[in-house]
Design brief:
Elements lengths: L1 H36 L7 E5 L6 E5 L4 E7 L4 H14 L3 E7 L4 H7 L4 E5 L1 H6 L7 E6 L2 E7 L4 H12 L1
Parallel strand pairs: 3-4, 4-5
Antiparallel strand pairs: 1-2, 3-6, 6-7
């Protein structure tokens, strides 16, 4: 009977270990999935609704260098990075993609100087964006770089210099 209990304990330990490993792998992939899957893929158009008036909007991101920031008004880190993105948008084409629900008061208070579109969840699912903020560098509609978490204007400038070299 003791040998049977030891065998059951080993099987139970192996099963729990496999589950823990799978959960860790899932969390790592959720965080870094966009880093792995997006570079080289194409994003040519951002569609959604204008957060100011709710009208349909379509933003062409197929040419030149575009900084694409995926964010939400309910995301504290996203809101904190907006002054830096406003500064970036003075030099480089910047487009925001909002994940809902959009808090109108927060959005208005930010007084953003770049275009935004509130996209539905299918956009975020298609590009495996599970962490906000996420910033993507596009060149002629092709993903060159992906950054998860807050990004500084200096980091964006470094990105842009790296693709021009």
């Amino acid at each position: 009977m003791n040998e049977k209990n030891e065998r059951s304990d080993k099987i139970f330990t192996i099963v729990i270990t496999v589950i823990v490993i799978l959960l860790i792998a899932y969390n790592i992939f959720s965080y870094y999935g966009a880093h792995i899957t997006l570079p080289g893929s194409e994003i040519k158009q951002i569609t959604g609704t204008d957060p100011k008036n709710g009208e349909p909007v379509s933003i062409d991101v197929s040419s030149g260098v575009v900084i694409l920031n995926l964010w939400a008004t309910w995301c504290e880190a996203c809101v904190k990075e907006m002054p830096g993105l406003n500064a970036i948008s003075e030099k480089h084409t910047t487009v925001g993609v909002l994940r809902g629900p959009v808090d109108d008061l927060t959005y208005e208070r930010l007084a953003l100087s770049f275009r935004n579109a509130a996209a539905d969840d299918t956009f975020f699912d298609k590009y495996m964006i599970s962490v906000l903020p996420t910033t993507i560098l596009l060149k002629d509609g092709t993903v060159k770089k992906v950054h998860t978490g807050m990004i500084s204007p200096d980091a964006v400038e470094s990105w842009i210099r790296s693709i021009d070299e």
